[in-house]
Amino acid sequence: MGNLDCQRRKPKPILSRCWKGIGLLMKDGLLRKVLKWAALGVFWVDLWCTRRLRQMRGEKPYKLGGNCALCAQCCESPMVQVSKMVNRSGFLRHAWLWWMRAVNGFELRNWDVNRRVATFRCSHFDTQTRRCDSYDSRPGMCRDYPRLLLWEGEPPFLSGCGYRAIHPEAEKLRKRLLDEPEMKNLPPEKREALEKQLKLK
């Protein structure tokens, strides 16, 4: 149950034929953009409902701090966590991979079955300029990144990323921390470094 071999697990013949036929018609054309915008609408509705439900359960995500540093690491090898159903069903997995390839231009690099994470190579990403050639029609997962990480216990931001996670109770925790006698004697730069390390700033 380790990583799937991308070379051995190729799409089913019928899906491959669909890809060859439709892929050429949609490339940089109106049809692909329409499909992307339709999928984007579904993505935002599903995302809003999912996060609203998690908030109702009492979950509190980290807050997002910082700004994009334009390092483009998230574009170089985009990763997507799939549902348990897609992870288990061969047909759904192939259909989903066909969509990711034909519509979003994502080529599968690796599939981690245990973590339910698929890693891709984006055909729209220019490795020389480190820019996206279809930024205006990028999929929802690219637009939402890295907000999805804020729901994890320890948000795993990429090294060099300009964003950072801030604890949901940062203000309360910072106030308690500043009340500690040891903190009052710390130099400002060390205090600031400690607050960032504890995700309070």
Distance linking N and C termini: 40 Å
- The secondary-structure class comes to alpha+beta
- Compute the gyration radius: what is it? 21 Å
Strand order of the largest sheet: 1-4-5-3
What does this structure look like?
The protein is elongated and about 60 Å long. The strands form 3 sheets. It has a 4-stranded antiparallel β-sheet. It has helices spanning 13-26, 30-56, 73-76, 84-88, 90-102, 140-144, 170-178, 181-184, 188-197; strands at residues 3-4, 63-66, 79-81, 106-112, 117-122, 125-126, 131-132, 163-166. It has 201 residues and is an alpha+beta fold.
Outline the secondary-structure elements.
Elements lengths: L2 E2 L8 H14 L3 H27 L6 E4 L6 H4 L2 E3 L2 H5 L1 H13 L3 E7 L4 E6 L2 E2 L4 E2 L7 H5 L18 E4 L3 H9 L2 H4 L3 H10 L4
Antiparallel strand pairs: 1-4, 2-8, 3-5, 4-5, 6-7
Notable traits:
elongated, alpha+beta, 9 helices
